[in-house]
C-alpha cells in the first residue's frame, strides 16, 4: 500500500485510547511550518508506534510516514491518517 511522508512540529501527543476488542490508538497533532500553519492529526494503532510516541515532545520537529485509511460506519464515512513510522526531522530515516 502507498504511504506518504508529512513533516511538522509536534503540537500535542494524546494518551492512548482503548476500545472494544483490545483495539488501541494514540493520536498526535503536527503543525505545518508554512505561512498559514495547519494542524493535522495522525493516529498510531500498533503497539510499537503507540510506544514510540513517548520518544517525542511538544515543539519537536518530526516527520511521519503514514497511510490514508477510510471506512464507513452506520452510513457515515471517515478518513484517517494512520501513522506507520515517526522520526525526528534531523534523523536520516528512509520511510
Report on this structure.
- β2 (17-18) and β3 form a beta hairpin.
- Strands 1, 2, 3, 4, 5 and 6 form a six-stranded antiparallel beta sheet that branches.
- The protein is globular and about 40 Å long.
- The two termini are 13 Å apart.
- With 95 residues, it is mainly beta.
- Helices cover 6% and strands 55% of the residues.
- The assigned structural class equals mainly beta
Q: Determine the oligomeric state from the structure.
A: single chain
Largest sheet geometry: 6 strands, antiparallel
Strand content: over 45%
Distance between the termini: 13 Å
Extract low-pLDDT stretches. none
Average pLDDT confidence is 92
Topology overview:
Blueprint: E1 4-13, E2 17-18, E3 24-31, E4 39-44, H1 47-52, E5 61-73, E6 76-88
Antiparallel strand pairs: 1-3, 1-5, 2-3, 3-4, 5-6
Give a brief description:
It contains one helix and six strands.
Descriptive tags:
95 residues; globular; single chain; mainly beta
Amino acid at each position: 500500500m502507498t504511504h506518504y511522508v508529512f513533516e511538522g512540529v509536534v503540537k500535542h501527543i494524546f494518551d492512548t485510547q482503548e476500545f472494544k476488542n483490545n483495539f488501541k490508538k494514540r493520536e498526535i497533532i503536527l503543525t505545518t511550518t508554512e505561512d498559514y500553519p495547519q494542524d493535522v492529526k495522525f493516529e498510531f494503532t500498533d503497539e510499537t508506534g503507540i510506544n514510540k510516541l513517548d520518544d517525542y515532545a511538544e515543539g519537536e520537529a518530526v516527520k511521519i510516514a503514514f497511510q490514508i485509511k477510510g471506512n464507513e460506519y452506520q452510513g457515515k464515512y471517515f478518513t484517517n491518517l494512520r501513522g506507520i513510522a515517526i522520526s525526528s526531522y534531523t534523523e536520516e530515516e528512509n520511510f
